[in-house]
Write a structure and sequence with these properties.
single chain, alpha+beta, Antibiotic biosynthesis monooxygenase
């Protein structure tokens, strides 16, 4: 699929994770369509890792 992109965002701190996710989504160009977000957590000992895989696609800008 042409124009399809993926971005993996992860962090061990939930606030850092949320900040990274927000900054990426806010930084997407107007011509990008966010198609799907898959979220996962993994725990090792007492530490939790938060991850999100974002799938987005470049589309043509709409004009009216």
């Amino acid at each position: 699929m042409q124009g399809m992109h993926f971005k993996l965002i992860s962090a061990n701190d939930p606030d850092v994770f949320q900040d990274r996710l927000n900054r990426f989504v806010e930084g997407l160009p107007d011509e990008a369509l966010l198609l799907e977000i898959k979220f996962s957590t993994a725990t090792t000992g007492s530490q939790t890792a938060y991850s999100a895989l974002l799938q987005y696609k470049a589309v043509e800008e709409w004009t009216s």
